[in-house]
């Protein structure tokens, strides 16, 4: 436990000082998206990496959080902070309601059901033009502010987003190391065995699905107030695939693996701008390669790979 606390404190220190030596603007902006994607990846990893329940609909909850806050603040002049809380609670309630029937399914049936939720949400974002602006998007979303202090620059938004991200990281670390987290891992290994041991598997799956949606909605609200403009293209199926790739590359069942995956997959599109139309192919290839060669993700796979190579070299010597 002491090592976990030390790791977290070191990570907080890195987050605190990281933007200071960077030039203001582009790199700081990229780090903002790393923070938002880290929250999304952590939410998905709780569901997939710890509870073993696949979801291809995380973009729906991300989009509902963004559009909910955007619509309430622009159309109804509601306070942004209040909008964020209300929308997150509503999205969590929605996830809880659909979680009971959806999470009865398993494997590819569950994947298809969650994919359907994402597709329906994306269609709604496009078609409800009076509220969302349709394909043209929603503009004029205000920045968040506290007592007259507005988060209207990249550096301010960096610390805002990462403050939320650090809270989510701390929540996840405490959750997965608790009795509840052990119950989730038991469900992941064998749901039947977990039920025999007295774990209420059905309720726990719905609860973690709800928490995952809540975190995604908060990330969506932050996204809309940082960008001040949103459009349906930011919440399509490709976003769900990107999030899945982040979790698999970083490491299923690893909190810091989610952050590493988010960092790599946020930077990767910047390196693939010339192949923009084929980015989904690249993500697919990454998923295949990681599953074959580093099934534990980078957090576990790279140290294991090094351990295999070092004895081999020592033997040759």
UniProtKB/TrEMBL annotation:
<dbReference type="GO" id="GO:0015658">
    <property type="term" value="F:branched-chain amino acid transmembrane transporter activity"/>
</dbReference>
<dbReference type="GO" id="GO:0005886">
    <property type="term" value="C:plasma membrane"/>
</dbReference>
<protein>
    <submittedName>
        <fullName>Branched-chain amino acid ABC transporter permease</fullName>
    </submittedName>
</protein>
<feature type="transmembrane region" description="Helical">
    <location>
        <begin position="84"/>
        <end position="102"/>
    </location>
</feature>
<dbReference type="Pfam" id="PF02653">
    <property type="entry name" value="BPD_transp_2"/>
</dbReference>
<feature type="transmembrane region" description="Helical">
    <location>
        <begin position="208"/>
        <end position="231"/>
    </location>
</feature>
<feature type="transmembrane region" description="Helical">
    <location>
        <begin position="158"/>
        <end position="176"/>
    </location>
</feature>
<feature type="transmembrane region" description="Helical">
    <location>
        <begin position="280"/>
        <end position="299"/>
    </location>
</feature>
<keyword id="KW-0812">Transmembrane</keyword>
<keyword id="KW-0472">Membrane</keyword>
<feature type="transmembrane region" description="Helical">
    <location>
        <begin position="243"/>
        <end position="268"/>
    </location>
</feature>
<keyword id="KW-1003">Cell membrane</keyword>
<keyword id="KW-1133">Transmembrane helix</keyword>
<feature type="transmembrane region" description="Helical">
    <location>
        <begin position="109"/>
        <end position="125"/>
    </location>
</feature>
<dbReference type="InterPro" id="IPR001851">
    <property type="entry name" value="ABC_transp_permease"/>
</dbReference>
<dbReference type="InterPro" id="IPR043428">
    <property type="entry name" value="LivM-like"/>
</dbReference>
């Amino acid at each position: 436990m002491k090592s976990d606390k030390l790791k977290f404190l070191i990570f907080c220190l890195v987050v605190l000082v990281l933007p200071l030596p960077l030039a203001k603007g582009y790199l700081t902006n990229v780090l903002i998206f790393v923070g938002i994607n880290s929250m999304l990846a952590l939410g998905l990893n709780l569901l997939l990496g710890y509870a073993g329940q696949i979801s291809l609909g995380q973009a729906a909850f991300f989009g509902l959080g963004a559009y909910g806050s955007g619509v309430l603040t622009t159309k109804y002049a509601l306070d942004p902070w209040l909008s964020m809380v209300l929308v997150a609670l509503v999205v969590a309630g929605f996830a809880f309601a659909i979680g009971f029937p959806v999470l009865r399914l398993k494997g590819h049936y569950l994947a298809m059901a969650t994919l359907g939720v994402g597709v329906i949400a994306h269609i709604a974002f496009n078609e409800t033009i009076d509220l969302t602006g349709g394909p043209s998007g929603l503009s004029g979303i205000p920045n968040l502010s506290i007592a007259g202090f507005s988060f209207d620059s990249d550096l301010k938004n960096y610390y805002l987003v990462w403050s939320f991200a650090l809270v989510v990281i701390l929540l996840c670390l405490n959750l997965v190391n608790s009795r509840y987290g052990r119950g989730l891992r038991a469900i992941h290994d064998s749901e039947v065995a977990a039920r025999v041991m007295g774990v209420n598997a059905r309720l726990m799956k719905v609860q973690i699905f709800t928490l995952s949606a809540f975190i995604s909605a908060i990330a969506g609200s932050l996204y809309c107030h940082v960008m001040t403009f949103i459009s349906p293209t930011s919440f399509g199926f490709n976003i769900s695939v990107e999030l899945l790739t982040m979790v698999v590359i970083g490491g299923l069942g690893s909190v810091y693996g989610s952050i590493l995956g988010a960092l790599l997959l946020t930077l990767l599109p910047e390196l693939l701008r010339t192949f923009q139309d084929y980015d989904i192919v690249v993500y697919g290839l990454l998923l295949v390669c990681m599953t074959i060669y580093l099934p534990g993700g980078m957090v576990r796979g790279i140290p294991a790979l090094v351990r295999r190579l070092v004895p081999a070299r020592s033997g040759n010597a």
